[in-house]
Amino acid sequence: MFAKIRNHLTIVYSTVMVCFLISFVVASYTGLVWVLYRQEQQDIEVYAKEEAREHSSLLRQKQLSAILPSEEDAESDGDLFHYAFDLNGRQVSSSEPAHEVRAAIREKILTWQEADGEAVLTKVYLPGDKKNYFMLCSIKVYDGEHLLGTVFVGKDITSYYIMLKRLLLVLCMVCLLFLIIATFTGHLLAGRAIIPIKNSFTRQREFVADASHELRTPLSVMLTSVEAIRTDDENTLSSFSEQVLEDMRSEIKRMTKIVSDLLTLARADAGAEILIKEKFDISDIAEKVIRSFQPVAVEKGVKLDFVGINDLFIHADKEKITQLLLILIDNALKYVKQDGKVVLFIKQSSGSKGTVNIIVQDNGVGIPEEQQQFIFERFYRIDKARSRVAGGTGLGLSIAKWIVEAHRGTINVESAVGKGSTFTVSLPN
Ligand code: ADP
Fold this sequence. Notes:
Layout: H1 2-65, E1 72-75, E2 80-86, E3 91-96, H2 99-110, E4 120-126, E5 130-143, E6 146-156, H3 158-231, H4 239-269, E7 277-281, H5 282-300, E8 303-308, E9 313-317, H6 318-334, E10 341-348, E11 355-362, H7 384-389, H8 396-406, E12 410-416, E13 420-428
Parallel strand pairs: 1-3, 8-10
Antiparallel strand pairs: 2-3, 2-6, 4-5, 5-6, 7-9, 10-11, 11-13, 12-13
Helix pairs in contact: 1-3, 3-4, 4-8, 5-6, 6-8
The chain binds adenosine-5'-diphosphate.
C-alpha cells in the first residue's frame, strides 16, 4: 500500500515538474523567437530605408536619361541583398543572394503583395526538400511626391532558424535530464514524506489488532453466559427478559464477527496472516459450504445450488478459501429476495490452463454500477440499514479481496440493479 502511495506521489511530483518544464521551454523559446524576429524585422526595415535613400539619385538619373538602364549587378555582401527597379519594372541595380535561391527570390519579388516598408518572414522551398528562411521588405522610392521606383531588400536568416532549432533540441534534452533528476528526487522525497504516515498507520494497525484480540475473550465469555441463562431450565424468564437476552445474543454475535474480521484485516496488513497452502479438492469444500448454508436458504425460501466438477484439486490455503466461499455465499443469500436463486460454480478455466474460477451468482437486489468499485473497501456498505439488518459489517468483501490477492488471484463483480450480481474469482492453480 505504501509503495503504491509513494509511486503515486512520485507521479504527481513528476507531472507537476513536467508541466513546469514544458511551460518554461515553451515560454523561453517563444520569447526568444519573438525577440529575434522583431530584431530582424526592424533591421531589415532600416536597411530598406537606407537602400531607398541611396537609390533615389540613381533612379532619378535613369529616369532623366530615358535610355534602357544598364544593370549594376553585384554579388551580395554577406546575407543581405537588394534589387532596385524603376517605374517600368526594369532592374537598375542589384546585389544578389546566393545562386541556388536567386530564382526563388525573384519569383517572390514578382508576386510581392505585402505592405510598403514592412518586413515579412518568407519561406523559400529549394530543390531537394530544402527550406530557406528570408526576411524580405519592399519599399517605394520617391523624389518628393514623385514615385521613382521600388527597392527590394532581403536577408537570409536560415542560419538563425537552424540555431533556434538546435537551441530547442538542447532545451528539450536539458528538460529531459531535469525530469529524470526530478523523478529520482521526487521518489526519494516521497519516501521520506510517508515515513510519519507509515509510523502512525503501524501504530493504528497495532492498536486495532490488540483491541480486537483483547475483545475476543470477553465477548465469547458474554456469549456463553447469555446462552447459559437462556438454556437454564430452573430459570423462569418473562417473555420480555427472553427477548432482551435474544437481542443481546445477536448483538454479541455481531460484535464478535466485527472483532474477528478486524483482527483478520489487521493481521493481514501487518503481514502476520500467513497462508498455509496444501493440495485439496475445492469441489469437496464447496459442497460442504453449500450444505452448511442450506438451512438458511430454506428458511429464506431461496434455491441454493452448486455446479462443479468433482476432484478439482488446487494448491491453496484451505481455511482461507473456505472463508472466501462463506463470505460470497453469505452475501448472495443476504441480498437475494424470497424465491430467489443462488448458484455457486466451480470451474477450471478453459482459456488459461490451471486457473480455477469460483463464481457466485444471485438474482438479488444487485449493485449500482457507480458503487461497484467501492464495495471491496473496508466498512463500505451500499445500504447501511439493509446491511445491518442482514447482519453485515462492511468487512466481508475486503477480507475476500485480501484472500484472493494473497493467492495472486483476481476478484470481479458484474451486477445490475434488480437483476442480481455475479462475483467471479480467478485463482491461479
Ligand atoms: P456486508 O457485510 O455489509 O455484506 P461486504 O463487504 O460483504 O459487507 O459487502 C459490501 C457491500 O456490498 C454490502 O453492504 C452490499 O451492499 C454489497 N453487496 C455485497 N454482495 C452483494 C450481493 N451479492 N448483492 C448485492 N449487494 C451486495
